[in-house]
Amino acid sequence: MPFPIKVCAVCGEEFELRPDKPGFANRCPSCSVEPDEPPAGKHTDALSSDREANAARKAAIRNLLYRKDS
After folding, report:
1. What is the DSSP annotation of 13-58?
2. Whole-number Å distance between alpha carbons of 24 and 39
3. How far apart are alpha carbons 24 and 14 in whole angstroms?
4. Alpha carbon distance 7, 9 (integer Å)
5. Are 45 and 62 in contact (CB under 8 A)?
6. Which of 39, 33, 35, 38 lies closest to 10 in space, CA to CA?
7. CA 45, CA 43: separation in Å to the nearest integer?
8. Which residue among 3, 13, 15, 39 is the one 20 to 30 A from 56 at the CA level?
9. Residue 40, C-beta contacts closer than 8 angstroms, at least 6 positions apart
10. What is the pLDDT of residues 8-64, one digit of tens each?
11. Residues 6+ apart with CB under 8 A from 17
12. Nearest in space to 18 (alpha carbons), one of 34, 40, 1, 36
């Protein structure tokens, strides 16, 4: 039984959709390959800014909850 012929959504090249093909079903094998390493620094910067924002938010809530009125 022949494999279905698909057209890559990225480059437009025709390819056979095989069961052991890695990646996405609508992309050819060369377009399905993911980069080896994620962009450096981008994720860690966002994560650290989220942590700082969460810490500030928690401190503000603590001040509101445990504030003693004189």
Report:
1. -EEE--TT--S-TTS-HHHHPPPSSPPTTHHHHHHHHHHHHHHHHH
2. 21
3. 14
4. 6
5. no
6. 33
7. 6
8. 39
9. none
10. 998 999 999 988 888 888 998 888 877 665 555 555 566 667 888 899 899 998 888
11. 3, 4, 5, 6, 25
12. 1
The domain segmentation of the chain, as residue ranges, is: 5-65
Tokens standing for residue 39: 């962009």
Place of tokens 């994560």: 47
Q: What is the pLDDT of residue 49?
A: 76
Quick one: tokens of 30?
């060369």
